[in-house]
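Quick one, tokens below. Sequence please?
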């Protein structure tokens, strides 16, 4: 974590990192934690901790992570209400589009209008996470999850082909801007002014956000009976 921070990948503000003693736990305690989140977590707790369901082994005994993931999948299937709560959490993130289909901006610290690239990615990330958990997909990378959901017929090939190139473009824009900021000894940020986008980039972002809105409708239909609760 320290090396990543030195390289410019800043510490998680919420403290969800391997260096945090709170997350250095034996498997038995991890099971207690996940059982609580699956059966009892309130929306705010899920909002803060949903990324913990993306755990993976990066060093050591991989079998421990595989066993824990299988147990988590089984626990979710035994308590289907979890997916309703997780779906409601996923729907909290909306694509940044106005009713007229324009990019929706917020005010940055200096008062300028800006678009949060990180927030813009969240509807796709949350969709991939929710359906990967529902279908017992081991992958934790968003693009890998989307690929497996496509292969299983959960995500249509048309939606996949529309979404993934634009998602990758948004990731490149975000990382490029952060790399430039570091080279210029500036604090890297997820915010971007719409004026910095080319017309082609803006068009592709709008297309991605339109697809993301359709994904939110699918979540609402599949998990909430077609009733959108935002």
């Amino acid at each position: 974590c320290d090396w990543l921070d030195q390289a410019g990948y800043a510490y998680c503000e919420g403290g969800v990192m391997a260096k945090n003693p709170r997350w250095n736990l034996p498997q038995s305690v991890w099971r207690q934690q996940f059982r609580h989140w699956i059966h009892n977590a309130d929306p705010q707790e899920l909002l803060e901790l949903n990324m913990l369901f993306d755990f993976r082994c990066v060093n050591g005994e991989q079998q421990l992570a595989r066993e824990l993931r299988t147990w988590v999948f089984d626990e979710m299937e035994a308590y289907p209400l979890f997916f309703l709560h997780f779906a409601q959490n996923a729907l909290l993130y909306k694509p940044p589009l106005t009713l007229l289909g324009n990019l929706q901006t917020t005010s940055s610290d200096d008062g300028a209008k800006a678009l949060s690239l990180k927030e813009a990615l969240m509807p796709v990330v949350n969709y991939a996470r929710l359906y990967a958990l529902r279908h017992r997909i081991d992958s934790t990378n968003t693009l890998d999850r989307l690929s497996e959901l496509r292969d299983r017929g959960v995500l249509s090939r048309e939606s996949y082909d529309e979404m993934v190139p634009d998602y990758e473009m948004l990731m490149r824009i975000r990382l490029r801007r952060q790399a430039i900021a570091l080279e210029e000894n500036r604090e890297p940020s997820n915010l971007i002014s719409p004026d910095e986008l080319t017309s082609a980039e803006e068009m592709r972002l709008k297309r991605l956000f339109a697809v993301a809105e359709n994904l939110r409708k699918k979540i609402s239909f599949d998990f909430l009976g077609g009733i959108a609760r935002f």
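The first strand starts at residue 106 and ends at 107. The longest helix spans residues 157-183.
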